[in-house]
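[job 4417] fold queue: 2 targets
>>> target A
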Amino acid sequence: MIEHRTFKRLEIPLPLKMRLLGTGHYVPIKALTKNVSLEGLLIEAQVFLEDGSLLIWKGEESVKLDPFLVLDEKLIELDIWLPPKSEKIRATGRVIWYDLGSKGTSYYFRVGVSLEKMGVLDGKRWVNFVKNIVEAEG
């Protein structure tokens, strides 16, 4: 496998909500990042099996995972909360890859996202956040 990453990945769990765009499925799904970079992020959400269907938490309720499994270069809208003040930024990203797997008796859904669009202020906050973490790690 050829590595295409330009920027270092930072192992940091950031809370976020993601919404599929252009699919008619706009329910926000809560998840966490596993790692981030200036160009993208890896998102992981917990999945569970109920009555023969794979479900993912959307917040208070759960939703079927099926719409996510047919993602192929789909756009998603992301609300990401940055520490330490829990400032929310909004971004649009493109799903590059996804993976559904299991860890013992539980399931996970991972999504690799390339960040494509942010507002000017949100973009500056993102760049500053990532660069500050890189500098802190030395």
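>>> target B
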Amino acid sequence: MADARVVHTADRTLGSRRLAALLPPEVLARPGYKALAEAVRTLILDGRIPLHVRLPAERNLAEAVGASRATVTAAYDLLRESGYVRSRRGSGTFTELPEGHAPVGVHALVPDDDGIDLAIAAMGAPDGVLGEALAWAAPRLAEVARTPGYRPYGLPELRAAIAGRYTRRGLPTRPDQILVTAGAQQALVLALGLLCRVGDRVMTENPTYANALDAVRHARLRTEPVAVSDHGWDLDMAESALRQTDPRAAYMVPDFHNPTGLLMPEEDRLRLLAATRRAGTWLIVDETISDIALDVPRPAPLASLGARGSADHVLTVGSLSKTHWGGLRVGWIRAGAQLITELTAVRVAADMTGSMLDQLVAVRLLEHLDAGLPARLDQLRERRAALAAALELHTPEWRWQLPPGGLSLWVDLGEPVSSALADRARAAGVHIGRGARFGAEPGTFEHRLRIPYTLPPDRLAEGVRRLAAAVHGSVPLHPAVDLPHWVA
């Protein structure tokens, strides 16, 4: 039976029941034409409905959502006027994006020089560190430049440095177990591309890292969500899903989970390790934020736990984006040597090799990571305290837990208005990460915001002040916003 949570594009047609299953409950309860059109627009922007897919006929969708045909016709008209669908006589109505418009995931990465960005959970590079590393790398680049420059597995010195770091952290690793990638996101895309086929299930946390969800959806895979609450992971649900739905892979963030900041307890790690092994499910562990340990010791790699050979099915993903700089596109996968060879074959088809200059810089940065990290963590503790203080001052009705590590707070607004707040905040010059972006299922986490504490304290305080003004304005926030605000 097809999973209604993800739309596949093999037949390029979206059935009415499948679209109805993707719509938020509040839209189905009161299917007005503006709310229906906005819900479809959001699904397109989030990637849950692919582009160039034919939408259901108006009569069929009206029956599926319990609305009149006139309501669906008006919704399609609004989508057409705004550029989110186009119609061809005799062929139907197809999804698309307005000219010059980008999906939500792209908007989140485009900087607004005049605004305050409370959406990206990453910091600028530490002062002077990149300059020193570039100076160290320059003469070595001259040596590398005498070669053709193609190193699909990665620079040997960097592979050895990454392997040595895992070994020192309790996970013995050889250089041939490392593939250097263009960031952790490419590592995940390569792993999904090798391990999964269209229509396979991938178990993910709910909520989870938004760009990972995008990777799963673009690979045309089906998500199998496992709840992560303020109290932690629902491992009973995870074990049940592994037994009953046979997911091909599982993507998990056990270290200072994005977006909640939670740290998975060791007993849960052992359960997850054992359950995925029993099920024959590949376990992709994202440790990109594992070094950002603010109140607890840095956790050991999940693959280092358990008996010898019990983690052969684990792929560990990491990068320098959070410890150093997102603009330095250096990440990696740690796995068995044979699997690394197979992943490299997939990688060659995509981009052949990574930047040698970036990798030389990364060698130097890894040499001094442990020495420079304490100052970075002290800075983050200060900024986390500043954000918490600003929230307590300006929005005392909101709730959150102070995480033991990571880069953001997962804030409970108390009502499902995060998308409406995001639109109003944008007008006030603040960009925020609405909760629905992190949901593995449609219509979830509209009562949440992810707010990183990666900006300087004064910028965090001003950003929260503007958010509070948007919330406490004379016009109440509503879960839906009018369509004319879509295209800026």
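[job 4417] complete. Note on B: The chain has three domains: 16-95, 104-121+373-485, 129-367.
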